[in-house]
Each structure stands twice: as C-alpha cells, then as structure tokens.
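Preliminary data (for renewal application), adenosine-5'-diphosphate complex.
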Amino acid sequence: MGKVILEDVTKRYADVTAVDKMNLEIEDGEFVTLVGPSGCGKSTTLETIAGLTIPTDGKITIADREVTNLPPKDRGIAMVFQNIALFPHMDVYDNISFGLRLRDYPKEEIDRRVDRASDIVQLEGMLDRMPDEMSGGQRQRVAIARAIVREPEVFLMDEPLANLDAKLRVHMRTELQRLHKELDTTIIYVTHDQAEAMTMSDRIAVIDGGELQQIAPPLVCYNEPANLFVAGFIGSPSMNFVEGEVTSTGLSTPNFDVEFDPGQLSGVAEGDHLTLGVRPEDVYLRQGSEGVANPTQSIPARTDVLEPMGDEIFVYLLTGDAAEPSMEADPETSKNQLLMSVSPDSDIEAEQDVEVVLDRERVHLFDTETGDAISHTLEFPATEAGAAETETEAEGDD
Ligand code: ADP
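Predicted structure:
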C-alpha cells in the first residue's frame, strides 16, 4: 500500500545541492516527520515525493510503483501546505469537493466523501460557511478535508500549522494524530519545529545540509542521537556540549574531568578529542542527587542566571575560572556554561556556589571532529566498576 521509498535521491539547483543522496524507507501507515533547520532540504525532499520537483538523481517508489518522473496527479498522493489557498467565493462544501467535481465524480460519491472527510475533521454543520466566516484553524481543517476526499495512499504535509497561533498549533497537533489514527494512511510531514516532530511522529528524519542525519522514533533521537547535530537540534533547551581530551582515566575538559574507562570504547585512544554532551535534566545539584544511581564526581560551579519556567527552573551555571565571583559574565564564558534544570520547589539562588554532578548513564560522547556519537553512557573505570557492582548487589540484597 502506501509505502514510500527514496533511493539516493539528489536534487541540485545550479551550485546548491538541496537534497544529497537521501535514502528513506517509510512504511505503509507510518507518520514520518522530516525535521531540520530552515534551508536543510525538507521541502525539496517532500516536493520530489509529491512530483512538484523531479530529482536530479535517484529513484522514488510509492506503493510499489516507481513514480520518479510521474506528474503529481498520478502518484496517489495529496498535499496540505502552510498557505491554505481556499477559494474565497466558494463555501466549505465546494472548496472540499472542488478537485472531485473537476474530475467529474458522480454527485453521490462526492457527497459520501465530503461527509466522511468533514466528519473526520469535525466540520459537520459548517459546509455552507464561506472561508471568511471561519477561524484559521477551521480553514486549515477545510484544507485537510480537501486532501482527505482524494483518498490518497500518502498524505504530504508541508508546515501545515506554521501560520496558526501557538495555542491552536498545539491543539491541531492532537487533531493530526487523531486523523492519522482514523485514516490509517501514510503521512509525511515537514516542520522546522522539533517539538512538533517529537509529539506527533512514529519516526522522525533529521536532516541537515540536504543529508539525512538520523531516522528513528522520537525518543531514540532524543536519548541516542546519532551525532552532534541531532543531539543539539532535538531537545529544548539544547544539550550542553563540552570539549575535552581523552586521558588514561577518562575525559579532561578545561574546567572539570569525568572518569570512565576509555578501554571500553572501541576506536578511542588517549589524546583523542571528544565532546561530552549532557542534557540540562541530567545535571544535578550534588546535594539532592541521591536518586542518581551513577553520578560523576562533583563539579564546582557558580549559579549565574535563573529562568523559572513554572514546571522547572533553568539554572545557568558557570564552571572553571568563570565561576570566580570576580569574573564578569561575557560571551566567552559560554564555553564555561552548563545549563541545569531543577525542580520548581528548589530554593536555589543566583550567584551561589554549588557542586553539581552528571548522571553517568545519560552522558553522551561524540567524536569532536566527525561529530559521530561514540557512546550514550559513561562506563566506569575498570576498578570502580567492580566496586559499583558490589554496591548495587548489596543494595539488591536489602
Ligand atoms: P527547507 O524546506 O528545509 O527550508 P528547502 O528544501 O526549501 O529547505 O531548500 C533547500 C535548499 O535548496 C536551500 O538552500 C534553498 O535555497 C535551495 N532551493 C530550494 N528550492 C530552490 C529553487 N527552486 N531554486 C534554487 N534553489 C532552491
């Protein structure tokens, strides 16, 4: 059915390679989101699937049929765009049924499809409204209904929620998930908004510079990012990154060391440059970190700015020299900065000396040069590993 396969799809415009050897295999009924910064090639990828752009190289298959050079109308797809181009002089019924009427579908078939589609997007009772009598969200639902009546094998959506206000966007996310469940059809969705991608998709395809960086379920991209780009792009606020050099006992960074056994990481040798990555929620105040099974040794820091968010407080920490009270914070200190998230009932204050630890089980290591992920957890040094195991066993016996 609606399985979509891209094999080495490349699209070049003069000297710009918009899409570079893209390989994707999207299962029938899957909701896959293409996500990445502006200009990374998401829309161009979607357009090659839609047939609005013919790739320079590569092959596209939809529902077991090669469609690389077919026009959009012969691909069994329907598209929903960011700009909802409804006909202003037509009511909702006429807008939804326009494509079917153009193709001379019988009246009863058109009525059946419009009824079903308007039911799915909850527009019943509004079929005789004019577009200017509707809200932005309702107009977007008309656009989606217009795609549904085509009964496509695959829905292609390019930032369909981008023009809606923040509250409605969150609401429409839930609606799209419900729609996907109800239609049981493949949906390929484009957005630059990683939160949108995380919440709706079965899998997300993270793209940068026209190249696929990782395709995986949202939580896999979050917990096991394939490289520095994915690690930094997925998650808000972004992961902390600290560069360091491998020693015989771990990683030495300008402001603190973390111990692990480099021997446990294949291809890593003393003197290698690695980047440590840790998410704000995996940085803990040492006092109160009892819940963390495997903390790193303490890192002295000074709290700088606090950002209370309601459900958590973001604490900007300064480490190393920058933690000296006499130091003025300047842009250079950003590399000495560590962002930590704490509970809203914490009594932490700005400009306080603290000790923090990182949750070893959630510390990532990346090759600084290639950006590739090396590990998503910090193995203990061999000697300590034994000790830690004994401790855990002892606890288990209690
Ligand atoms: P995204 O959807 O991720 O924002 P696009 O796919 O729109 O990115 O664009 C990817 C790159 O290709 C950009 O550098 C863009 O400027 C370029 N590009 C897209 N369409 C065209 C075009 N028709 N002509 C020339 N360059 C284009």
